[in-house]
Amino acid sequence: MSVLYLLSIIVPTICMGLVDRRWRLFLFRPGRAGRAVAVVAAGTVLFLVWDLIAIGADMYHRGESDAMTGIELAPELPLEELFFIVFLCYLTMVLHQLFVLLLARPSARSREAA
Predict the structure, then answer these.
(1) pLDDT per residue as tens digits for the range 41-70
(2) Whether 19 contacts 87, CB under 8 Å
(3) Number of separate domains in the chain
(4) pTM (predicted TM-score)
């Protein structure tokens, strides 16, 4: 049993949290933490259900690797999948908020024209 793959998901998630905290993009926006957690939780549930449907349809099988913990949340659903889904949802929302912020800023050309 190894935690290498799990750590390779957790470390970037922490780094994404640091970026989010620094620029207050999603989870660290004042007064919005509860909503942010709900959005990530909803996305996580959606993708977990998707995975379980794919597993039930025999379209998805757990890969074997020495880097994985070997812990399964359900048959063919490794613990690492849950952490990956949370990371994917969080990353998506941080990037979305970053693009919203960047697109809302007036560009240098518009400032020069004014």
Answers:
(1) 999 999 999 999 999 999 988 888 899 999
(2) no
(3) 1
(4) 0.89
